[in-house]
């Protein structure tokens, strides 16, 4: 995938995927980038490579296990998708400086990961614990709520009450 730095920063223009003759929208490019390995290569106007980044944008297997234990599955209420079928979402997008760290990753099913920005759910981290705010059509109170389907965290929550 290649995209001009100005287009990436301004979320405008198009990107180009290897092996694909037609350009793709920035939305498609973000989705591809979100689930794949990305290595940033910055080139100057004359084509000279001026900087090569690393591929530390993808969560590793140890981080995935830890996030799966914390979240249990897709964190959007009602989804019921188990951890093994989920993808890890950067709460603060990697492209906007979000770290590839357990404090910035949450489990989402394929559907919620692809359409999160369109369906109204909001996600934030509160001291390393994910919280969601439902869209008004789902919960008129619009409150932030800690979420999990992790058996360990659910048992602790029940024991506290």
UniProtKB/TrEMBL annotation:
Keyword Cytoplasm: no
GO MF: endonuclease activity; nucleic acid binding; zinc ion binding
Signal peptide: none
Assigned keywords, A-Z: Endonuclease, Hydrolase, Nuclease
Domain HNH nuclease positions: 62-114
InterPro entries: HNH, HNH_nuc
SMART domains cross-referenced by the UniProt entry: HNHc
Gene3D superfamilies per UniProt: 1.10.30.50
Protein name per the record: HNH endonuclease
Origin species: Microbacterium saccharophilum
